[in-house]
């Protein structure tokens, strides 16, 4: 098996045992990127020399006898919203084209320290606003399962890179489902940790109260190893939780669901859900039952109001977070010809630098926060948010985890929803409640839909700081299904 | 600048009654900024105290400065406020180049401290100023508009921004409307500013250097016709940067508004700019085109939830507040209300206290600071505290006078020398040769010379007109260049002339 098909854990062990060098591992992935990324367009930035330089440094650290973690020498691709001192960071926007940050995000810094080697920065919907990566200012990313389909979004570059064996691991951010949905539609594992469990410092903000960094991997253990490597309290992020990281690696190893109480969310299913998605979902629930879990149906009535609440809260915060892109200190500057005022330059720059979806959300958010509308929109949405948190709380009195399909449908064709924002927003129907309540959820592959042969994801939701439960259930599902399939789901994907 | 018609103050007050409101911004003296670790020291080269957070680089996040929160709570307690058990920061959204995030982290409907008061004394009366709220926010950067006539952004050729100030913790203290001040409105406004500044100093939370902008006032004024109970439309004069200007801006705004109202005009709710040089205000932006700040709770920061027991301990540990301290010192020093008020107005209480602490009798300490030194400060146009002399040095001069080594006249010369930078009082005495002449031989020689030169006066004394000895004493003092002990010279003169009193 070639290096690119190995798991992150295997690569880490090979490097640690001196069987391969970090440079060799990096080179194998850089070769793969060179071969397939012209079709996939997962990466916005690849810099061979910088990557190999990092790999050489890891080899040198190992040679010097430094005790490196399990992922030292393993390559990783970062969603291009995490700042990196040695690579540009654009958030998928023209307004930050060529921008080089002077500091590392906490996530990128911690992973650098753990010896992971950065392959490059991955494509995304501009400022993480979207569910298909079509909103990138740098062209859409394609789904390795079917190059005419979307890889999900907003972290679609990161999901596609891992699904296309360009990287064994990648980072993403999940504001309304931007890790779980792309993971589901590309047949990989994607985890949204508990809000505050992973630091947002250096993550270019979309919606501060929702944004959550998380891992992508091709298997549950790799995701857990990455999760553990960048998580934990960060004094640079006020909303970071000062508590031990849930024992996710242990849970991924354990994978025992005997006696676990699993609740099926009643509100997620029925109209608007693809038959093949529901079929795989129900089979997986039966599988879990056969493994000893106790399955019950649980009603969370407020979940149906999550989508509209989200589309008030997230744009409201975004309208303020994106105000800093004003041409004054960094990034694009338009119209500064010596005759125009600062205000005019700001306006021209923002008009030229932001794409249509970003503008739509800034306008939506600005409106929702306006004097006279605040209570009816933003205020009301916050109340809904409280109701959703209460529904979760009540549910977790009855069960240990909740499950649902990760997305109502499999990957949709590029262009199909590009002109229909509402249809696009529905892709996050099942994932949004978790963001609003701040708890943890994972998406794990559970098969292919009969009608299109595309991947389906199972979403497992756990209480705040119950991240380990997500991994436990996901590991159980992965173990049982891979036994049936004779390998990972990706082994069924067409070769690129 | 337009010249506006003003109504003389007395006439304005005959016809109208003012209502005041004051908003005060105080930069806290914390070591680091409000939401990042950058230093707060004044006067560094532009844009050197900056980092990803206070420059609002993509991805940077604020973390709240615990010392600033503590200082704000102490200010609230000193102003008799209630302290919120739970409150949040809020974002105030507006675009301006000196505000890196294009929103200011402030507090909106959940201030940290609310509903307090501060008592101030004016004309021997105590006036209670109600405090609406005290909240914590961050300062903006500083814009300099180059070119153009006004120094403001409109009409400037270009503007430059220094972000060193961006993110310095700023406490905003807002009074409730202050009615009933009547003709004392300007004085009350100033007394409030003075008292507030002393509270800040007493707490040690800010250096309150108004000339560096670490304390600045927005002054709200409205007028209503006498007999009316319906408040008029107010204007807000921004960034009034000295206590004197607080007083002048209130007076000037009363005179301006009165002229407009008396002429049948109406006052527009607007912000106005105060001009130090003329004491007048000019119109700024109108509130009618005011921005919608779209306040919402700051999602990047966790709420502030000060522990009740901790707040109680802060309250118990508050230092003696200025008004209590003044009462205590007045008793200790045994001075009149009038003298105490004069010292307070001259900002001399702390100096006198320190001089007394250095060993001087209170009466002497007060005499020098409020007399000779006040005169010198006035001549130089600087506050007393900026004179180049220390309370310890004053105390030393007092001791020399008490010990007979100096008289008052010589002491004044010593002070002059110290103020000129000639060294310590002892060094000045030595260098200028200012010791009182106690040497009887030297004094006798001077007296003999004076008697020889003033034979007529000497005869008058001999013939019984003892009062004439004054001229001879004057001669001795002149001849000794003030160093003679005048009392002893008089005794010796009378002795020599064979006259006794």
From TrEMBL, chain A:
The keyword ATP-binding applies. One of its GO terms (cellular component) is glutamyl-tRNA(Gln) amidotransferase complex. Pfam families: Amidase. SUPFAM superfamilies: Amidase signature (AS) enzymes. Gene3D superfamilies: Amidase signature (AS) domain. The keyword Metal-binding does not apply. It is an enzyme of class 6 (ligase). Keywords: ATP-binding, Ligase, Nucleotide-binding, Protein biosynthesis, Transferase. The active site is at residues 79, 154, 178. One of its GO terms (molecular function) is glutaminyl-tRNA synthase (glutamine-hydrolyzing) activity. InterPro entries: Amidase (IPR000120), Amidase_CS (IPR020556), Amidase_dom (IPR023631), AS_sf (IPR036928), GatA (IPR004412). Residues 24-470 form the Amidase domain. One of its GO terms (biological process) is translation. It catalyses: L-glutamyl-tRNA(Gln) + L-glutamine + ATP + H2O = L-glutaminyl-tRNA(Gln) + L-glutamate + ADP + phosphate + H(+). Its EC number is 6.3.5.7. Allows the formation of correctly charged Gln-tRNA(Gln) through the transamidation of misacylated Glu-tRNA(Gln) in organisms which lack glutaminyl-tRNA synthetase. The reaction takes place in the presence of glutamine and ATP through an activated gamma-phospho-Glu-tRNA(Gln). Heterotrimer of A, B and C subunits. Belongs to the amidase family. GatA subfamily. This is Glutamyl-tRNA(Gln) amidotransferase subunit A. It comes from Streptosporangium minutum. The gene is gatA.
Automatic annotation (TrEMBL), chain B:
Its EC number is 6.3.5.-. It catalyses: L-aspartyl-tRNA(Asn) + L-glutamine + ATP + H2O = L-asparaginyl-tRNA(Asn) + L-glutamate + ADP + phosphate + 2 H(+); L-glutamyl-tRNA(Gln) + L-glutamine + ATP + H2O = L-glutaminyl-tRNA(Gln) + L-glutamate + ADP + phosphate + H(+). GO terms for biological process: glutaminyl-tRNAGln biosynthesis via transamidation; translation. Keywords: ATP-binding, Ligase, Nucleotide-binding, Protein biosynthesis, Transferase. It comes from Streptosporangium minutum. The keyword Transferase applies. SUPFAM superfamilies: GatB/YqeY motif (SSF89095), Glutamine synthetase/guanido kinase (SSF55931). This is Aspartyl/glutamyl-tRNA(Asn/Gln) amidotransferase subunit B. Belongs to the GatB/GatE family. GatB subfamily. Allows the formation of correctly charged Asn-tRNA(Asn) or Gln-tRNA(Gln) through the transamidation of misacylated Asp-tRNA(Asn) or Glu-tRNA(Gln) in organisms which lack either or both of asparaginyl-tRNA or glutaminyl-tRNA synthetases. The reaction takes place in the presence of glutamine and ATP through an activated phospho-Asp-tRNA(Asn) or phospho-Glu-tRNA(Gln). Residues 350-497 form the Asn/Gln amidotransferase domain. GO terms for molecular function: asparaginyl-tRNA synthase (glutamine-hydrolyzing) activity; ATP binding; glutaminyl-tRNA synthase (glutamine-hydrolyzing) activity; transferase activity. It is an enzyme of class 6 (ligase). Heterotrimer of A, B and C subunits.
């Amino acid at each position: 098996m070639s290096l690119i098909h190995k798991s992150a854990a295997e690569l880490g062990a090979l490097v640690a045992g001196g069987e391969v060098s970090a440079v060799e591992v990096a080179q194998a992935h850089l070769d793969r990127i060179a071969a397939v990324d012209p079709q996939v367009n997962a990466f916005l930035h690849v810099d061979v020399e910088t990557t190999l330089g990092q790999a050489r440094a890891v080899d040198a650290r190992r040679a010097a006898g430094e005790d490196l973690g399990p992922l030292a020498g393993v390559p990783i691709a970062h969603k291009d919203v995490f700042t990196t001192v040695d690579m540009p960071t654009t958030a998928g926007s023209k307004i930050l084209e060529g921008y080089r940050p002077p500091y590392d995000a906490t996530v990128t810094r911690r992973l650098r320290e753990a010896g992971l080697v950065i392959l490059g920065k991955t494509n995304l919907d501009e400022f993480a606003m979207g569910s298909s990566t079509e909103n990138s200012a740098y062209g859409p990313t394609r789904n390795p399962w079917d190059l005419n389909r979307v890889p999900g979004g907003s972290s679609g570059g990161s999901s596609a890179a891992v699904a296309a064996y360009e990287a064994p691991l990648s980072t993403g951010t999940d504001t309304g489902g931007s890790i779980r949905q792309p993971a589901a539609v590309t047949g990989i594992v994607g985890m949204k940790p508990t809000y505050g469990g992973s630091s947002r410092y250096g993550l270019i903000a979309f919606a501060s109260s929702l944004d959550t960094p998380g891992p992508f991997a091709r298997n549950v253990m790799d995701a857990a190893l990455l999760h553990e490597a960048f998580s934990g309290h960060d004094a640079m992020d006020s909303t970071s939780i000062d508590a031990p990281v849930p024992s996710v690696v242990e849970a991924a190893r354990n994978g025992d669901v005997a006696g676990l109480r699993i609740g099926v969310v009643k509100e997620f299913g029925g109209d608007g859900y693809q038959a093949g998605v529901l079929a795989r979902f129900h089979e997986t629930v039966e599988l879990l039952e056969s493994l000893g879990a106790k399955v019950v149906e649980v009603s969370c009535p407020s979940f149906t109001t999550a989508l509209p609440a989200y589309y008030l809260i997230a744009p409201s915060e975004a309208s303020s977070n994106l105000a800093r892109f004003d041409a004054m200190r960094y990034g694009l500057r338009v119209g500064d010809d010596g005759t125009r005022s600062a205000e005019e330059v700001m306006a021209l720059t923002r008009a030229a630098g932001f794409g249509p979806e970003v503008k739509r959300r800034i306008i939506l958010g600005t409106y929702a926060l306006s004097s006279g509308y605040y209570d009816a929109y933003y205020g009301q949405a916050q109340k809904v948010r409280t109701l959703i948190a209460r529904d979760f709380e009540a549910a977790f009195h009855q069960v240990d985890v909740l499950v649902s399909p990760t997305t109502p449908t499999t990957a949709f064709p590029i262009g199909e929803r590009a002109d229909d924002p509402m249809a696009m927003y529905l892709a996050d129907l099942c994932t949004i409640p978790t963001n609003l309540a701040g708890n943890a959820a994972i998406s794990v592959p559970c098969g292919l839909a009969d009608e299109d042969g595309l991947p389906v994801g199972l979403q497992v939701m756990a209480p705040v700081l119950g991240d380990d439960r997500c991994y436990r259930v996901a590991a159980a599902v992965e173990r049982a299904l891979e036994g049936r399939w004779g390998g990972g789901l990706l082994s069924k994907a067409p070769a690129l | 600048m337009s010249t506006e018609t003003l109504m003389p103050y007395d006439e304005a007050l005959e016809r109208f009654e003012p209502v005041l409101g004051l908003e005060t911004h105080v930069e806290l003296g914390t070591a680091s900024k409000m939401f990042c670790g950058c230093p707060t020291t004044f006067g560094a080269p532009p844009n050197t105290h900056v980092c990803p957070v206070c420059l609002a680089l993509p991805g940077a996040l604020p973390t709240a400065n615990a010392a600033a929160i503590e200082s704000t709570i102490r200010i609230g307690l000193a102003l008799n406020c209630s302290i919120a058990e739970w409150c949040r920061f809020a974002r105030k959204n507006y675009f301006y180049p000196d505000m890196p995030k294009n929103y200011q982290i402030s507090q909106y409907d959940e201030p940290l401290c609310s509903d307090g008061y501060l008592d101030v004394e004016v004309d021997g009366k105590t006036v209670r100023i109600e405090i609406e709220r005290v909240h914590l926010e961050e300062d903006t950067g500083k814009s300099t508009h180059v070119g153009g006539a006004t120094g403001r952004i409109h009409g400037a050729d270009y503007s430059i921004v220094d972000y060193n100030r961006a993110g310095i913790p700023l406490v905003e203290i807002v009074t409730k409307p202050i009615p009933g001040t009547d003709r004392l409105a300007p004085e009350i406004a100033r007394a409030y500013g003075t008292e507030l500044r002393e509270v800040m100093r007493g707490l040690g939370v800010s250096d309150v250097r108004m000339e560096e902008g670490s304390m600045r006032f927005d002054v709200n004024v409205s007028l209503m016709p006498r007999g009316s109970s319906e408040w008029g439309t107010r204007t807000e004069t921004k960034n009034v940067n000295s206590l004197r200007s607080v007083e002048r801006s209130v007076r000037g705004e009363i005179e301006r508004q009165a002229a407009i109202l008396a002429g049948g005009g109406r006052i527009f709710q607007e912000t106005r700019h105060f001009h130090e040089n003329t004491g007048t205000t000019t119109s700024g932006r109108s509130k009618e085109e005011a921005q919608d700040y779209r306040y919402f709770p700051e999602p990047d920061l966790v709420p502030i939830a000060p522990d009740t027991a901790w707040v109680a301990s802060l309250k118990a540990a508050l230092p003696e507040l200025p008004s209590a301290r003044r009462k205590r010192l007045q008793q200790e020093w045994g001075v009149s209300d009038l003298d105490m008020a004069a010292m307070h107005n001259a900002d001399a209480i702390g100096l006198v206290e320190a001089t007394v602490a250095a060993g001087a009798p209170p009466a002497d300490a007060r005499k020098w600071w409020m007399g000779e030194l006040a005169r010198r400060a006035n001549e130089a146009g600087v506050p007393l505290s900026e004179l180049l002399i220390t309370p310890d040095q004053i105390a030393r001069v007092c001791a020399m006078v008490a010990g007979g080594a100096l008289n008052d006249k010589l002491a004044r010369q010593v002070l002059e020398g110290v103020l000129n930078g000639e060294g310590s009082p002892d060094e000045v005495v030595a260098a200028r040769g200012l010791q009182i002449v106690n040497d009887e031989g030297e004094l006798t020689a001077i007296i003999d010379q004076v008697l020889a030169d003033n034979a007529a006066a000497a005869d008058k004394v001999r013939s019984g007109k003892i009062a004439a000895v004054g001229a001879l004493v004057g001669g001795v003092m002149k001849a000794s260049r003030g160093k003679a002990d005048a009392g002893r010279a008089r005794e010796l003169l009378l002795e020599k002339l064979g006259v006794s009193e």
